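Sequence in, structure out. Go.
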Amino acid sequence: MSTSSRQITYIILVIAAAVISGAVGGFFLALTHDLPQIRALEVFKPAAITRIYSADKELLSELFIQRRQPVPLHMMPDYLKQALLATEDRKFYGHPGVDPKGILRAMIRNIRAGEYAEGASTITQQLAKTLFLTPRKSIMRKLKEAFLAFQIERRYTKDEILELYLNQVYFGSGAYGVEAAARIFFGKSVGDLTMAECALIAGMPKSPSRYSPLVNQDLALKRRAVVLVQMARNGIITSEQLGAAKSSPLDLAYEEHASVKAPYFLAYVENFLEKELGEGQLYRRGLTVHTTLNYKMQEAAEKAVANGLRQLEARMAQHGLVEAERPQAALICLDANRGGILAMVGGRDFADSQFNRSTMALRQPGSAFKPIVYACAVEKGFDQNDVLWDAPVVFKGAKEGQDWAPENFSGKFKGEMTLRQALALSENIPAVKLLNKLGPMSAAQFAYRMGVTSPLELSLSLALGTSEVIMLELTAAYAVFPNMGVWTKPFGVLEVLDQEGRSLLRARPQRQAVVSPETAAIMTDMLKAVVLEGTGKAARRVGRPLAGKTGTTDSCRDALFIGFSPTIVAGVWVGLDNHETLGDNETGAMAALPIWIDFMEQVLAGSPYCDFDLPEGVVNVRIDAESGLLASQDCPNSVSAVFKKGTEPKKYCRHAPERGLGGL
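Output:
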């Protein structure tokens, strides 16, 4: 084809394109009815990142469908906006959504190239395509894109369109919107970007997968140079700035996502929020979630569990116990007064198993259930110095219609014992005899009052913890004792705020008085005896007022320790998921208590020393630990014990001379 012929062809194409562009433009402008998509755009908000924080302000996790954090236009650097317009749409503020001259120019270049070499979409068209259309190239899609762009321009200002585009467009490597891009690529907020960094980000929408600096640094730098040259040509930057920016090195963050912390707790919280708010709100609306978790305590819990499991596995290996499953552990810590979850470990490794053994696993608590039976007795008028006989006994038809003769863990009998001694030493026969006096139904109903929700078997073996419960509910039941008889429902979320800072959900602790303050104080005192005189003696090394109870099930399948200080309560469980034995002598005192001690030493270190409060209705006297009678100061087995006023012992043990209470 001759030069003159080509010129004539180009002139005809130019005239045809101008006529078509004018006709199409007039057609679009003449339309007055709304598309459903545009009506939807009026209430459209880009999906944003929900962030979950601990009570001590640690970012725990980010939840999102697309990693995005919308920011207003005025918070974005001018260089970023100018770089984008210079590269993508220089006439953005002058056209009505579609640029006819740009379309004509692209058509001519594509004809010359013999292929689709250049597009002519404005920023408004790109926004329309991103929000409403598929990426598949076709004439019909381009017509729809242009029409939608006209409609968007009719309803929104140019700044609103630019802001929506910059918050919506994809920049590669999982970054949707400029704030996410700035954080993913450079580890900073968009407002802190340098001019060179702005140029790099502005050049990425053309081909995000190719120009991401995390994918191909060379291509990203070449694309940045193209954008910088465009900025210089448009007078946005000087030649000196151009040279400096082109030679500036990339300083990449390389971390695409914030690490997930406290994963078992986060799964617990997410499940709660999905039920309360719905998935749409949680994952799309950029919420701020403040939780009860204390991250320093969480770190201490994870460290304690890891150390305890490592030591347990070493002991198991020494005894030739090589299991297909490795031992698991769970730790739950609650605010004794408010019920907030302060720390939660649901297993040895969330990546291997998401099953939360602190909130989901039904396991036998063993002797860790005994305090509920003893509390029921105290509430019904028993005193901690009342005497039970630790001696062989047979209960006719007590176990599945068969006669049952319970045994102590040691296989020995100690004869006459006080309730305090029996609980401190975790003797089984006195506990079963006590439950026989109360009745299994009475004790089960009392357990339900204290927050246990798992079904309990109405048999005498209930005293030995044969009914399966969940660690969280049993730990919350123990919190009744330091909390003066008040049960508080455990919870993990303090407040949820929307993007404007408005409260969507706020915790309202559910509290209920379930036992008298006097009963709670007496039970706290009896559980202190477990630490001072009984199976929990190892905890004395913490050097703080503590109380708690060990628990061990048949064949050492489960090992527990649940205990508390005046302010926090923590429960630890150790076992195998397949319910096999941990090994001989892997009791609660051996396998679970060391984890509990490790945790409490860490979290109580440096905190103010405080003791358990005593209500007005109790009195503290010294008794002989064996007989439960009053003791003089020179009594060899003298211990301090709490009684309801008027029920304290009046007689002295045989080691002390008879004298009035005034001599104490």
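Check: The first helix runs from residue 3 to 30. The chain has 22 helices and 22 strands.
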